[in-house]
Amino acid sequence: MLSWLRPSAALLALAAALPSQGAEPQAGLVALHQACLDAGTDGVVLNVAAHPDDEASRTNAILRRKYGMRVVTAYTTFGDGGQNAVGKEIGPGLARLRVRETLRAAALSDVDVRWLGMNDFGFSKTLDETLAVWGADRLKDAMRKVVDEVDPDIVITNHDLVHGHGHHRATFWAITEVLKERAAKGAHVPPLYSRSSADEAQLTFDPGELDAARGETYARMAHRAWTQHVTQGPWGPHNPLQPGKEHWKVVYPEGVKSEEAADWRHWVRDRLTKEVGAETAQQFGALIGEPASERLVQQADKLLNALTIMSPYDADNIQRRRERYAALQRILLAAADVSIESWLEHEEVARGGEGKVFVVVHGFDKLKDVKVACRGVAAEQVKPTVRPQTTDVAAPPARVPGAPPPAPPKPPEPPKPVPGELVVAFAHQASGDTMLEDGPRPAWVTLDVSFTLDGVPIELHPRLWYTPVDPVEVEWDRDVVMVPRGQTVERIVSATVRSHRDAEFSEPVRLLTGNGVKAEAIPGRVSLSREHPEARLLVRAAIAADELPADATLRLEVAGQKAALRFAPVEVLVPPGLKVGLVRGPDDATERALADLGIAYTALDRDALATSKLEEFTTLLLDIRAYNHRPELAENRDRILQFCRSGGRVVAMYHKSSEWNERAGHPLLAPFPLTVGDVRATEEQAPVAMLQPEHRLWHHPHAITQHDFDGWVQERGLHFPTKWDSAWTPLLELKDSSDEKPSQGALLYTQYGRGDFVYCSLVLYRQLRQGHQGAARILVNLLAR
Ligand SMILES: [Zn+2]
Q: Do β-strands 619-622 and 649-653 pair in parallel, antiparallel, or remain unpaired?
């Protein structure tokens, strides 16, 4: 059957990129169900979001999985200005992680992703500030490009113009402006749905509903995808008792009636009926949702043919036809138990180097003329692994006297390649937008697969995402080493060398030092291979702070790749006897500062917290988000407070509200009530007022002045406490230019017994990473009693 089907070459060339690296297989009943839904509509939803994790994952899950809509999420930024709940990466390193998290989430949700490429400069409180940084026109241009390309039937966004992050407001502003432009030109204007309260909702989805094919709720599926944004945690577990509802209203065009907004499907410009005729479309619609049947397959086949023979087709319809065509093909594949599984050997591919795609064609024996290629290069059969032959040398068989000698063992048959197991290499090419080639924008490679199934020619083009990297990466484990003035210190600093080359290499380590630095690399040579692609390199450096030139660096070179480590001489006094017990958080900037400044400290793990003699420390430091990183701090609350009562100082750095605030099983670590909220000072220049200028914290051992707050980066602080017991003394007042009133929660102090407790929400860690002298001086004052 079906052998009469001959799609035109032009149409085949446009066959869709199948979702790849996806969570769901392409064969089986679920795949068949989804393919039927996809073939039943060519509706497209665009979900615009400011940051990775701002997507409307639950509504997206319903639109994609229940209604077969194609969903595209567009992110304005890569999220580099955010925090990191699980590691020390911030800035570009964090952006790279968040891109991968987003691709994983998108694969689970089976949605496409676009990036607008704006710079995430950290939390912003206003639309104006964000537009000033991004450029209103630049933002609008990027948004217009996405809207034109995706050509959505409806647009949804969690954002609006007046709430939350300035990046959220600007994202909302941009999509609205682009839709207004379209209206002015007389072009198609999709409605823009924005989040709404239950009272004002015009459209409500229920994510607690079970998906018919998968047997689990949309809420659970969405939660699984959303929690891929691991760096943006902590995420609680999915709670089936509270699936919640998704409320939406149309905010553009204005004045859309509730009945009209509630019936979201009427916005979808479906082409099927127009193209194949009402009767055929209806017959097909009646089959959707039926299990695999000859009728269904025949109908899909008939539609494929109908779409194929129509010519010419209008140009603005190409993408939709391509999607529909691919969905019809997927019906045939799923019904025949055929699936193309493909994956990359490595998630990273070296610029100038090669990546490798592996392919398994499941159901190979049902297919004819299977061709798999990548950028014009045909895939080869995977050479089977030859297992090493094991011979029993320990116990040779005993010779029976007079018996013929034993026949020599038969050489094993060489294993044969398995048909349908293929591999193909490809060279990295800058894909699409090269503007941010060195940025976190991921690259992709497309695989070209063609075959015939029951005489039906099928073409698939799975797209595989990867991160382009340098062939050899050399990276110091930090950017700056602080060196106290007046001292010559010895420090061991570390770097990582990573090879993405296939060939082994062994290269000397070159160090370039200037005045004031003597350095020696351990080891002096690195040897790397595919087996052992990464080496840790230690450098022992003797640094005379007062001899350092202004731009002192230690430069490291391996295999032509260079990395520079900066030295920052700082004027800092460390009082004798200061001894810190450190409870680590996810970030290590504060700990490195302790080491750089020569402050004696001991990192306390769970057991050490419970058993060590805390009285031997002058200060216990709970680093940023330590209570999230180490929830077992709850077990040690009494010990911590006892330490404080009997004369120790406890310093807690900032936490998110859910991490710090008291609840059952998660007691407050401070001696007096203190509730963390979400107040921030996001302007790095925000004026600072010291509220108790005579307070010892401002004077010992350093006299802190405004100068110590000059030249900060990104922000002053975040997650300030908003409620505190009168036992606490606020020491700092901060106000962003857009704030109506200042906030006083950034630095709180209280005495407790013979000791004292400091809660500090300043982002000292971001400043310490830059080698900021003022931040180092403030840190020492926080620690020193
Ligand atoms: Zn956001």
A: parallel
pLDDT tens figures, 654-708: 999 999 999 999 999 999 999 999 899 999 999 999 999 999 999 999 999 999 9
CA-CA-CA-CA torsion sign (403, 408, 412, 413): negative
Distance 352 CA to ligand 1 centre (A): 35
49 C-alpha to center of ligand 1: Å?
A: 7
Mean pLDDT of all residues belonging to the chain: 89
* 92 CA → ligand 1 middle, Å: 17
| Omega within 30 of 0 (cis) for the link into 312 | yes
Q: Is 230 left (phi over 0), alpha (psi -120 to 50) or beta?
A: alpha
CA angle, residues 685, 691, 692, in degrees to nearest 5? 135
Which long-range contacts does 180-188 make (Cβ < 8 Å, 24+ apart)?
A: 180/252, 181/144, 182/147, 183/253, 188/151, 188/269
**Of 58, 442, 456, 449, whose CA–CA distance to 246 is shortest?**
58
Nearest one of 34, 92, 101, 36 to 73, comparing CA atoms = 101
- Residue 314's pLDDT is 53
Distance 57 CA to ligand 1 centre (A): 13
Residue 210: DSSP 8-state: B
Segment holding 183, helix H or strand E: helix 166-185
Query: DSSP readout, 337-381?
Result: T-EEEEEES-SEEETTSEEEEEEEEETGGGEEEEEEEETTEEPEE
Can you spell out the DSSP letters for 425-441?
EEE----S--TTTTTT-
The secondary element (H helix, E strand) that includes residue 96 is helix 92-109
Alpha-carbon separation of residue 332 from 301, 590, 646, 681 (angstroms) = 8, 58, 75, 57
| 767 Cα: distance to centroid of ligand 1 (angstroms) | 23
- Say if residue 2's pLDDT is above 60: no
Q: Where are the alpha helices (DSSP H) in 419-574?
A: none
When pLDDT is cut at 50, 70 and 90, the band that residue 547 belongs to is very high
Under 8 Å between Cβ of 60 and 88 = no
- 471, 501 in Cβ contact below 8 A? yes
- The residue with tokens 């030859």 is 386
The sign of the dihedral angle between the CA atoms of 405, 408, 410, 412 is: positive
Phi (first) and psi of residue 706, to 5 degrees = -55, -30
CA of residue 165 to ligand 1 center, whole Å: 7
- Spacing, Cα 238 to ligand 1 middle (Å): 21
Phi-psi category of residue 268: left, alpha or beta, with phi > 0 → left and psi -120 to 50 → alpha: beta
CA distances from 599 to 478, 604, 608, 776, 784 (A): 19, 15, 19, 11, 10
Burial 124-145 (b: 16+ CB within 10 A, else e): bbbbebbbebbebeebbebbbe
Which among 342, 380, 347, 343 has a CA at the least distance from the CA of 361?
342
Q: For the residues 453-477, what does the mean pLDDT come to? A: 90
Report the 10 Å Cβ neighbour count for 377.
13
For residues 45 and 73, the answer to whether their CB atoms sit within 8 Å is no
Q: CB–CB of 750/729 below 8 Å?
A: yes
> 79 C-alpha to center of ligand 1: Å?
8
Name the one residue in this structure whose structure tokens are 């209570």.
627
Ligand 1 mean position to 81 CA, how many Å? 10
